[in-house]
Design goal:
The complex is a heterodimer of chains A (about 140) and B (about 180). Helices cover about 55% and strands about 15% of the residues of chain A. With about 140 residues, chain A is α+β, with helices and mostly antiparallel strands. Chain A has a three-stranded antiparallel β-sheet with strand order 1-2-3. In chain A, helix 3 (about 75-85) packs antiparallel against helix 4. The termini of chain A are far apart. The model of chain A has no long low-confidence stretch (mean pLDDT about 85). Chain B is mainly α and about 180 residues long. Chain B contains eight helices and five strands; from the N terminus they run E-H-E-H-H-E-H-H-E-H-E-H-H. Chain B is globular. Chain B has helices at about 15-20, 40-45, 55-60, 70-80, 90-105, 120, 140-145, 155-165, and strands at about 10, 35-40, 65-70, 115, 135. The chains are: A alpha+beta (about 140), B mainly alpha (about 180). The interface of A and B includes residues 97, 111, 116 and 128 of A.
Chain lengths: ~140, ~180
C-alpha cells in the first residue's frame, strides 16, 4: 500500500488480491480518512494482519451481502447503504424500510455492518470547539 | 467537575439510544450541565419494549431528569385518547425538539441550549436554530468529553454501542 497527499484525507493505492486468481493483484486509488487509517493500522497490528487484508475482508463482506440481498430481491441493504453514504436521510430511510423507530434503524445499521453517516471531521471539530467555549 | 450553572443539554432520541446501548447515559451528565428530556422524545424511546426503553426510562427516573413539556406531545396524547385512527407519529420528536428550542429562546434567552443529535440529523437543514441553541452530534459530545479527560476514549464508547447493538438478536428486520 502506498500513499500520497497531506490533508486529513489520504489517497491510497491498494494492492488488492483477488481470491479466484490468487496471484492477480490489481491496483486502484482511493481516498481514506486519516484517522480511520490510523485506527485500521492499530487494528491490523493487534490482529497480526495487514490493512490490505482487512480492506479485502470488509469489501468482500459488503459485496457479498449486497449480492445476497439482491439475489433474493431484498432492497433493504441497498436502502441502508444509501443511508450510510449520505444519499438518503434518516426519515426517508425509515419510510423505505417501513420502520418508525430510530432504535430499529440503529440496530439495522449495526447488524448490516454499515457505519451511520458522519459529518466531516472539520464540522465535528467545529462543534467540539463550540462545546469547549461553553465549558470555559 | 465544572460548575452546575451552564448550558442546558437536551438529547434527541438517537443519542439516548446510542448511549444506552453503550451503557453510558451518564456521560450526558459529565460536564455538570443540567439535562432535560423533551416529552415527545422520551415517549419515542420508551413507547416500545426495546433493549433500551426500560434502561432509558429508569435512567431518567433515577437521575431525576426534568421533562420538557411540549404542545406537540400534548396534541399527540389527545389524539391517542380520542382513538384517532391516523395518529401521526413520524417526526413528532423532531417537531417537539424544534418547539423546545423556540421555547428556550423565548423563555431563557440567556441560556444556551445544547441539542444533541446523531450526525445525519445535524446535516439536515430543516431546523430553525435560535441564536442561543447549538446542534451537537453525539460524536462531538464524546470527543469533547475525551478532550476534557472525562472519558478515556470517544471511539470506545461508539464501538461499545455498535458492538452491543450487533449482539442483540431480537431485531425486527423489515420485510
Amino acid at each position: 500500500m502506498t500513499s500520497t497527499g497531506s490533508s486529513a484525507t489520504l489517497i491510497y493505492v491498494f494492492h488488492a488480491r483477488i481470491r479466484k486468481r490468487p496471484m492477480a493483484n490489481v491496483n486502484f486509488t482511493a481516498a481514506i480518512d486519516r484517522d480511520l487509517l490510523k485506527r485500521a493500522k492499530v487494528l491490523a497490528a493487534k490482529a497480526e494482519t495487514s490493512v490490505n487484508a482487512l480492506f479485502n475482508a470488509e469489501l468482500r463482506y459488503l459485496v457479498e451481502t449486497f449480492d445476497a440481498a439482491e439475489a433474493t430481491g431484498n432492497q433493504n441493504f441497498l436502502v441502508l447503504l444509501d443511508f450510510s453514504l449520505g444519499r438518503r436521510d434518516g426519515r426517508e430511510t425509515m419510510d423505505a424500510l417501513g420502520i418508525d423507530s430510530e432504535e430499529d434503524l440503529f440496530l439495522l445499521m449495526a447488524q448490516a455492518h454499515l457505519p451511520t453517516p458522519r459529518l466531516p471531521e472539520s464540522a465535528t471539530r467545529g462543534i467540539v470547539d463550540e462545546l469547549n467555549a461553553l465549558a470555559d | 467537575m465544572p460548575a452546575a450553572h451552564g448550558p442546558v443539554v437536551l438529547p434527541d432520541a438517537g443519542p439516548l439510544i446510542a448511549l444506552a446501548y453503550a451503557d453510558a447515559l451518564d456521560l450526558l451528565l459529565k460536564p455538570g450541565w443540567p439535562v432535560r428530556i423533551v416529552d415527545m422524545v422520551l415517549h419515542e424511546v420508551t413507547r416500545n419494549d426495546t433493549p433500551t426503553s426500560a434502561k432509558i426510562g429508569a435512567w431518567v427516573a433515577e437521575r431525576s431528569i426534568p421533562i420538557e413539556s411540549t404542545r406537540t406531545f400534548a396534541h399527540y396524547c389527545d389524539a391517542q385518547a380520542e382513538s384517532l385512527s391516523q395518529v401521526r407519529k413520524a417526526n413528532l420528536g423532531e417537531i417537539a425538539v424544534q418547539e423546545a428550542m423556540n421555547a428556550l429562546a423565548l423563555a431563557a434567552p440567556g441560556t444556551t441550549g445544547v441539542f444533541l443529535f446523531e450526525d445525519h440529523k445535524i446535516a439536515r437543514p430543516s431546523f430553525l436554530l435560535p441564536d442561543n441553541c447549538r446542534k451537537v452530534s453525539t460524536r462531538a459530545w464524546l470527543l469533547f468529553l475525551e478532550g476534557k479527560g472525562w472519558i478515556d476514549s470517544a471511539a470506545d464508547i461508539e464501538r461499545a454501542a455498535i458492538s452491543n447493538g450487533r449482539s442483540f438478536s431480537r431485531l425486527r428486520f423489515p420485510r
